[in-house]
Amino acid sequence: MVLLDLCSVQGVIVLYLFCLIRMLVPIEFSWTKAVSAPGLYNKIYGVISYKTEIGMELVVWQILVLVWVLGAVILLLRLMGQYRKAARYFCRLKPTDNVLAVNAAKKVTGGKKLDIIQTPAVRTPCCMGVFRKRVLIPEKPYSEKEMYYIIFHEYLHLQNNDFLTKMLVLTLCAVYWWNPFVYLLKKDLSQSMEIRCDSMLTQKMDRQERADYLAVMLKEWKSSQGVMQEEGHKGVAVELFGDGSEKLIERFSLIADGQRRPVKRGKLSAWVIAAGLLVLSYSFVLQTKYEVPKTEIEMDRDTYEVVNENFYIYKKRDGSCVLRSRNGDIPIGEESVKLLIQDGFKIVEGE
Asked: pTM for the whole thing?
C-alpha cells in the first residue's frame, strides 16, 4: 500500500518539500513540454487577469490570493485552537495509578516513562502530544492482556510520530484548502497508520496471539460506537478506531493473513514516489497561445512571413547554416537552428 509509505513524518516532510520546491522554483528544463489549449487557457487567463474596482483597483488573481490566504489563516487558527483546547484539558489530568496500566507501560517501553491517562473523556484508546506524549484510554476495566495490547498499539503510534504526522497533514490541508488532492491524502490517513501499527505489533505473533489481539480490537470497536462524552480531543488525537466497520474488516483481514511489509523499502519508496512526482511536474507547463494581431505587424513589399512551407535550413559543407528561401539566404547560428528544427523546419545538407 503506497499510502503507508507516505503516511509517516518522513513521507509528509518529503511532500512538504516537494510542494515548496515546486512553488518557489518555477523553471523550465530542456525536457519540459508546453501544453497549450487556447480555447481553455486563454479564457482562464482572461478571467484571472481581469481588473476590477473594489474600493481600489485589483486584478482577479490578487483577489484569489487574498481569499486563499484568508481561508488558510482561519483554518490554521481553528486547528491551533482545537489543539490548545485538547492539550489544556488533558494536561490537567494526572497519569493513572492503575497497576495493570503501569505494569503494561513498563513492559512495553522497557522501563521508560510513559504517561497513561485514564479518563471518561475518550471513547476509544488514543494518543497525543509532540514533546510530552500521552496515551489516553477510556475509564473502564481492562484485563491484563487487553491493557497490554492497547498500550503497546498506542506506544507504536508514539514511536512512529503518528500524531505529528497527522498534525502536519491537517496543516497541509489548511494551507491548501482549495486543493482537492490534499483531502485524498487525509482521507485514509488514520486507517493507514492503524494498519502499520497492527503490522508492527503482530509481525512476531503466532496464530493464537493474533486471535487474542483481534478479540481486543473487536471489543474496543463495539464500545467505541457510543456517544463521545467530551469533544475536546476529537480531530487532533490519533484514535485506535475509525467510525466505519469496513475499516475494521480491512484491518482484520490483514492481521489474519499475517501480512508483513519491509520498513526500509517502504521509507525508500516514499522518497522515490515524491522525487518522481517532482520530476513529472517539471516535465510540462500549461500556457496560453495567442496569434499576433496582423494590425500590429508593419508590412511592406520587402516583408514576408517565415514559415516552414517556404523556408528550410541549408547546411553548408563547412558546417555553417543558412535559412534559405526563394528570396535568398539568411545566415543563422546553432541556437537558431535548434529552435527552427523544434518548430518543424526541415534541414538539407549541401552536397
From this structure: 0.69
